[in-house]
Sequence to fold (150 residues):
Amino acid sequence: MAYWLMKSEPDVFGIDDLKKVRVEPWDGVRNYQVRNMMRDDMRKGDLAFFYHSNCKTPGIVGLMSIVKEAYPDPTQFDRRSRYFDPKSKPDEPRWLAVDVRYKRKFAEVLPLQELKARRQLAELPLVQRGNRLSVMPVTPAQWEYILTLV
DNA sequence: GCCAACGTTGGC
DNA sequence: GCCAACGTTGGC
Fold:
């Protein structure tokens, strides 16, 4: 089983939204590196941190699990979607989504600021300069350590 | 709202 | 294949 960290803007889709709907397609990924990780490395049963980005207190806010492995992201074909990609063809989809399931919301946000301050997490892509991955792998050691901070 | 850092696009 | 211009991400 692998571990992940997945970013979403709470104004668009936050942990409370996931808690409400329980299962949700993680769509709108438009980065090839992330797509490839989702396709090649992300498996049903994997666990992921839910991270709130682009908000007042960015940080990890809860846990979820992967319940459906990569499949063509429907939003790429939806002309009305903000994620519509005119260059993608149904017989050759360019972008992929997975389905995630709500597991747990933390009592408090575990702020990015705090993650950055821990030397044990120095290798986490999230805290590295210039990193732009919206989905990233978390090692078992990092995963365990982060859980001790909650 | 600013802007650093990065990815993508497209002319050549 | 290079690289300038542009767009996006996301912290601050």
Observations:
- The radius of gyration of chain A is 15 Å.
- The helical segments of chain A are 15-21, 32-40, 112-117, 140-149.
